[in-house]
Each structure stands twice: as C-alpha cells, then as structure tokens.
C-alpha cells in the first residue's frame, strides 16, 4: 500500500533569489518525491519585521558573499540567475509588494498557473534584470506564463482589493507562526508534526527526512 | 599526470556547532578528495566585530531554529551534537577564547594533534555540555586527544603568551581578509583565485567545484550509497 503524499508548503517571495533556487529544486522533485507541493506566496519584509531579523545584504560582507555564492549556485543547480546591476536598490528600495499581491490573486483564482507566473516574475527580476513593480511588468510576466491579456488584467485589478491584500498578510503570518525569520521557508508535514526548514541548502537533508535514501 | 592537491583552509571556532559539522565533513573527505586540508583556528567574536555581523542567536526565531536544525543535521551527518542546557550562556557569555588560544598553540607546536584536540573540545562543549573555559577543562580535552600531561601543560602556558595571542588574531584577520562574516569559512584555492564558502551546507557544491561529485556518498554521511546529488532534468527557461 502506497504512502499518502506528504504535504510540503513552500513560503517564498520573488524578491529572494534563494527562494527561486528552493522553488526550482522542489518543482523538479514534486513528481519524483511522494510530496504534495503547495506554493505559498509571502512577503519577505513582513517576515523580517515580525521576527526582528534584517536583510542579509545590510551586512556589507554578506552582500558581497551572496553575489559570489549565487554565481556558484547558478552553475551547480542550473538556474539562470543573474545579479541585477543595482542589486541593493532592487532589493531594498523597489521590492516586490505588487508582484506578491499579484501572485496571491493568481493563487486564489487560478492556482494551476501559480508556478508558471512565479517563474516568469523571477526570470524578470533575477535573470533579465527587469522591473517587477510596474503594472505593465507584471502583466508581461503573466502573459509570458500563459495567461490571456484579459485574465492578467483582471487578476491585476483584484491584486489591489482588501481580499487579496489580507490573504498575502495571512500567508505571511502563517509562515511567522511556523517560526520563519526569512525566506524560503519550507514546512514539511511529517507524521506527527510540521518540520520547518529554512533556506534552499537543506535539500539532501529534506530527502533524508522524507525517507528517500 | 595526477593533479596537485588543492589547498583548502577551514577557518573555525569550537564555539560554533556548524564549524564542527564542516570540520567533520572535511576530515572525512580529506583522504578521498584531492585536497590539502589546513585547519585554521580562529575567533568568531573577532570575525563578527570586524564584519559588523551579529550572532544569529540574538534573533529569537533564529536561535530556536538553530536548535531544531542541529537535531536534524546531527542525525543526517552522524555527528553527536547535543545542545547545551544553557545554550545562550554558553555561546554569548562563556565563549571560547582560552580554547582557541590553546588550539592556536597546538597548531604552532604540534600541528599533527590539531584535529584530535579540536574534536575533543567540540565533544566537551557540543556533545557532553561540559566546560571549555577553565584550564582543567582544556587540559582534559588535550589529554583525551593523546597529548601527555606535560605537553598539555606546556601548551596551556604558551597559550597566554603574546606570540600565541597574536597568532590567533592574525588567523582571524586572514579570515576577515577573505571576506568572512561568520564561521565556518572555507577557502578553496582554485587555479586562479581563492573561492570562499561560508557554512557547512555547501559541501555538494564544493565537491562540484573540485570536480569530485562522483566520490560524494549520500551527501557526505558515512555510508556507501551513491548520492542523488545530480538533479533531474532542468526546467527550460525562455
């Protein structure tokens, strides 16, 4: 008798390149491992504020290190990451609020498109150094992902409703309730209790926890 | 013609449990990978101060997370880590200055003992929740590692000389010059330039950089089952 798939929640923000790595790795494994992957668009500034943590790039050596680390990881994991020219402005000033609200709307109305749209937003910000804050940027990503112009426009309108704004807050709160202090945060629902993993560098350990070795 | 072994420096502090994991993993692979592992006892508060970084445990959720993370990692990597009962006092108040000065002295006079003595200090603080700050604690670790009472006592005396204190400062500075903001910090001397890796969770990537992926076994735990490190077909990116 086959085991039931284990539920695995991935809390992520497209602002976070390490979220992209975790996302791609789990997407690759979702049909190989016995898991039910649930994508949970979240808002990283909300997580940082609630936990009292700070963006790593604020420590200059951490920022420099991240840029080097991402170059190696991009080759190793074959995810086409390219550091934005104005790295700090993109992360600390421009942000991703509109994009994450949009993904929240997608998740509420067309969840089967969430993976594709998330990927296209990451491709903009973290591969082609393109904007993800303006309406036309978000619509472009949505259409590239396979949504029609009308669907994309409708979802964009919904993004600014209280319903969607609150849903993003709820998801971010849920991550905080699991003890998140950053993203990506993965929650594996094991037999007796949830197991929380931070970052995209615990995949082998995750496989071990899922009894896959 | 065989390639020359690549020099790999491991900057570590016994106060850091993740340093212990990195240390054990590299010790397991030093005779399997074509590397020349050089242990570099360093002082983590010096690294944090110089880089403007803070101990992760100061963010409450990070501290809680670390305790859980270490439980999983201990099982996965089979390193007998046990969280000290008074975790925060051990890390933030008691510290490891005497221990790291002692290891510096060992490295200067009896470098062949550095691996064993480092391990015995980690076993005290991070496996048996024992002190590593008092002279008798350090002597006990040294003797357990194989040093004689006389050798241990002599090294302990040397630990408080300016020569040894300065050497610890120099090693810590060297890590800072490589851009370290915490420990463990691994510096791999690749063909053209040094490659700096932070933490103990980049071992598979390190194996990839060294061209040693084939010899990786179950992500570096002590079994012979081949590791599923090479990931399935990649997403096509447009």
Essential attributes:
213 residues, Glutaredoxin, 4-stranded mixed β-sheet, 10 helices, 11% strand, globular, GST_Kappa/NadH (chain A), EC 2.5.1.18 (chain A), glutathione transferase activity (chain A), Glutathione S-transferase kappa (chain A)
How would you summarize this macromolecular structure in one to three sentences?
By secondary structure, chain A is an alpha+beta fold.
Integer count of domains of chain A: 1
Indicate the overall shape of chain A: globular
N-to-C terminal Cα separation of chain A, in Å?
19 Å
Main beta-sheet annotation of chain A: 4 strands, mixed
The ordered H/E elements of chain A are EHEHHHHHHHHEEH
- The average pLDDT value of chain A, as a whole number, equals 95
User: Most extensive interface, residues per chain?
Assistant: A-B, 46 and 42 residues
Strand order of the largest sheet of chain A: 2-1-3-4
Write the CATH architecture name of chain A.
3-Layer(aba) Sandwich
Q: What would CATH call the class of chain A?
A: Alpha Beta
Radius of gyration of chain A, in Å, reads 17 Å
Domain DSBA-like thioredoxin (chain B): 8-210
Pfam family, one (chain B): DSBA
GO molecular function, one term (chain B): glutathione transferase activity
GO cellular component, one term (chain B): cytoplasm
